Amino acid sequence: MTASTLVLLRTPPPPAGPAWPTLARARRVFAHADAVDWAVADVRLAAELEVCSSSWQRRHGDSRPPPPARLASLAQLTEAVLAGTSIRSLGFGGDGGRSGGVPGRLLLEVGFTPVDDRQRRETLEIALAAAAFELDGDVVFTGPGVAHLAGDGARGWGQLVDFGLLGLWADSALPDAVVAASPLPDDRLAALRSAAATRLLL
Amino acid sequence: MSGSSLSDPDFVRTDDGGEPPWSERHAWALARADGIELSELHWWMIRFVRRHWLDYGTPPLMRVTVAAMRRETAETDASSRTLYRLFADGPIKTACRYAGVPPPDVCI
Fold first, then answer.
1. Angle between helix B40-56 and B91-99 (nearest 10)
2. Nearest C-alpha of chain B: how many angstroms from A70?
3. Above 0.95 for ipTM, yes or no?
4. Own/partner pairs for B26-32, CB < 8 Å, 24+ apart?
5. Fewer CB within 10 Å: N-end or C-end of chain A?
6. Residue A26 carries which DSSP code?
7. Hey, which residues does A139 pair with through a beta bridge?
8. Which tens digit of pLDDT belongs to each residue from A45-97?
9. Which residue in chain B has the smallest CA separation from A131?
10. Distances from the Cα of A53 to the Cαs of A32, A65, A179, B108, in angstroms?
11. Residue numbers in B near A54 (CB within 8 A)
12. Residue A183 β-bridge partners
């Protein structure tokens, strides 16, 4: 992790967990989804703090986060990916995503079960932001993450397939899945990870 | 899932089955209040945005709308510029309002 690394934080990290050294060193943090309230409230977070404006507004309406936090957009996060900014991701699925610091293909990894529609929606919107900027990339659903593709709230992922926006892969299929992702054998997952310049664990 | 339902001639009259209530009259009234005379291309976009929302639960991305316009209409300049010519105050946001569906809430 370099001094200019951007940390994408999507959920409050466990106390004294392995994410803390990453956060302590970070100069710039982009808080998204369930992390926004925690990031704004935690005084230990000394980094430049950007708060996703749509995540914030869903929770707090038109108010603004207290300084030094400032609202930022997913467009700015996506611009950072496009620019090849070094990004470390601390997602619901743990600490795992990294960027090699070069522009290129994007891989979004979803390995957790959403607890509600908002969490599901806020995972999809990262993919939509990438698609809006015409980033080449893929979304993979692994383990419990395949739950994102089942139930009524899953249909939003279908637009990625139907309009050829991003590749969609899943390592297993639920019987009630409403979106058909491509099968993801281990060798394909390894190949996608290998081809990705930026890999974000959501 | 995409495309074919947009040409359903009954689509604009479908206000049941859990869909947000809507009618052509609703769109006409809003457009008139905004000083916009709705052309065929306006109508195509309003219907496309509504159908996309019903199919996926979100409004379409701008690039998806442009690609669909290229595919489904005779417009020779299918581009984001054309979308802004149709709805200068934000094409997707305005089309959502006329189509009776929630506007985009993602900060893209």
1. 80
2. 14
3. no
4. B26/B98, B26/B100, B27/B98, B27/B99, B27/B100, B30/B97, B30/B98, B31/B98
5. N
6. -
7. A108, A168
8. 768 899 999 999 999 999 999 988 999 999 999 999 888 888 889 988 777 66
9. B61
10. 9, 9, 28, 10
11. 105-107
12. A170
pTM: predicted TM-score of the whole model, two decimal places: 0.89
User: Which residues in B lie closer than 8 A to residue A162 (C-beta atoms)?
Assistant: 1-2
| pLDDT tens, position by position, A138-184 | 999 999 999 999 998 899 999 999 999 999 999 998 999 999 999 99
The tokens describing B86, both together, are 């149709």
Token pair of A199, please?
């890999």
Q: Which two tokens stand for residue A99?
A: 């960027």
Tens-digit pLDDT profile for residues B72-82: 999 999 999 99
Looking at residue B3, the DSSP 8-state letter turns out to be S
Spatial contact of A148 and A170, defined as CB atoms under 8 Å apart: no
B45: left (phi over 0), alpha (psi -120 to 50) or beta: alpha
End-to-end CA distance of chain B: 24
> What tokens were used for B101?
């569906």
Annotated catalytic, B107? yes
DSSP assignment of A48-69 equals EEEEEHHHHHHHHTT--PPTT-
> Measured between CB atoms, which of A75, A131, A155 is closest to B55?
A155
